[in-house]
Every structure is written in C-alpha cells, then in structure tokens.
Amino acid sequence: MLLLGAALAAAVLALSARASAPPVGPLPKGPVTSIQVEHGQLFALVLPKPANGYAWRGAKNTNVKVAKPLDEGELNGNIVLVYKALKAGKTTIAYGLTKDETEKAYKSQTFQVTVT
Predict the structure, then answer these.
(1) Closest CA relative to residue 30, chosen from 99, 92, 115
(2) Which tens digit of pLDDT belongs to each residue from 63-99?
(3) Torsion angles phi and psi, residue 6, rounded to 5
(4) How far is Cα 111 from Cα 83, in angstroms, rounded to an integer?
(5) What is the rounded distance in angstroms from the CA atom of residue 51 to the CA atom of residue 81?
(6) What residue ranges define each of the domains in the chain, with the CATH number in brackets?
C-alpha cells in the first residue's frame, strides 16, 4: 500500500512538472505549409526528429473547434502528429524546436490549415 502511494505521488509530481513548462517564445522564421482538408477527415503533420535534448513544442493556440490533435508518434525517424478536421474554417498550427522545455525556439514549422 505504501509503495502504491509513493508511485502515485511520483506520477503526480512528474505531471505537475511537465505542466509547468514555460510557453514557447517568439518563433524564428521557418517553413509554412498550407493544407486543405475536408471536415471529418484525419490528417497528419510531420516534423523531423529533433536531436537529443531538443523537443518540438506547440507554439501557438490552435482553434481546436476547427482541427483537434488526436495522437503523435514516431515513424521512419520523424515525428508524426495526427489531427482531425472537425468543422469548416481556418487555423494555424505552429511548433517551435526548443532545448528541452525552455522558452527559446531555435527553429519553427507552421501549418496553415483550411477545413472545407
């Protein structure tokens, strides 16, 4: 019982540490990709796998009423982010490459999504 309580406390601390990461700061100029997708469809965004110690982090608020993130994973050495197009509209999905969970973005990748 004591061991279970310790494991639960460790999990809560890990989650709260992750939730307290600072937001990504200003994005450097980077590629912008335009995507058009029909509502109800799934679509994937692909980012190159970062070097050790770096992470792609969401950098701007995405209109989740237009496109909602569903899942992410790694495929062929790339980071794949799966979204669902929910309703007609436009949204911007931007990622910044940061060192661990710091504020400074070293690279950026932006996706302009239009859902029809």
Answers:
(1) 92
(2) 999 999 999 999 999 999 999 999 999 999 999 999 9
(3) -65, -40
(4) 12
(5) 18
(6) 24-115 (2.60.40.2020)
